[in-house]
Amino acid sequence: MFNLFRMFLVKILIVQTESREQILKTNLKTILISIISIVMISLLLFKNVLFKSNFLLKSFGELSVDPAIAFANNKPTFLEFYAEWCEVCKEMAPQVSALKDEYEKGINFVFLNVDNPKWGNYIQKFAVNGIPQVNLFDKKGNLISTFIGKQDEIKIRESINNLEKEEKSHEEIINSEFSIIQQNKNNEVSPRSHG
Predict the structure, then answer these.
(1) Most distant CA pair in the chain: distance in Å?
(2) 171-174 sheet: strands from edge to edge
């Protein structure tokens, strides 16, 4: 009888253990599916924030006014040299996009990718050593300001607002946070460094 009772208890324990394992597996699957769902939904909701800089930077070339037209249409010009691999360019892309949205009716916005051999003459003409490099020109095409590296949006905005003033002298502002232009294997323009 004792053996029968013992076998009964063992069966109950086995059933309980199997039941607990089944519940644990079910709960683990539910938790895993919930985590995956939350991650997927977060990526969908925040994709604009996470990928906005990359998208903006890639779209700059498409949004650009041709430099030959910009320097001939009697409007001030915002000229930025950038590259898609440049981390500082990516950081500044939302600020530059906001400036473009605000000022594009009265100012030409020109974006030149330093990796495009088509822009080699402009890279040399404006001595581009580090990027991003922003050059601001008055409506006559005179270079007024040069910003190299990461810049405060307020400083660029002040310079844009000063383009209409009569007294002008060239101003160069360099920040230590910039990217040195890398050698482009598709482009025969020699690599440049920032001394």
Answers:
(1) 111
(2) 108-113, 77-82, 133-137, 143-148, 171-174
pLDDT tens for 93-148 read: 999 999 999 998 999 999 999 999 999 999 999 999 899 999 999 998 999 999 99
Residue 1's Cβ-count burial label (10 Å; 0-12, 13-18, 19+) is exposed
**Amino acid identity for residue 115 in this structure:** D
The residues, any chain, with a CB within 8 Å of residue 158's CB and separated by 6 or more, are none
Which tokens in the block code for residue 42? 């977060």
Task: Give the span between the Cα atoms of 132 and 149, in whole angstroms.
Answer: 5
User: SS3 of 136, please?
Assistant: strand
Q: What is the chain's Cα-based Rg?
A: 30
* CATH number for the segment(s) 59-180: 3.40.30.10
Catalytic residues: 86, 89
- What pTM, to 2 d.p., does this model score? 0.63
Among 64, 51, 148, which residue's Cα sits nearest to residue 109? 64
What is the rounded distance in angstroms from the CA atom of residue 180 to the CA atom of residue 129? Answer: 6
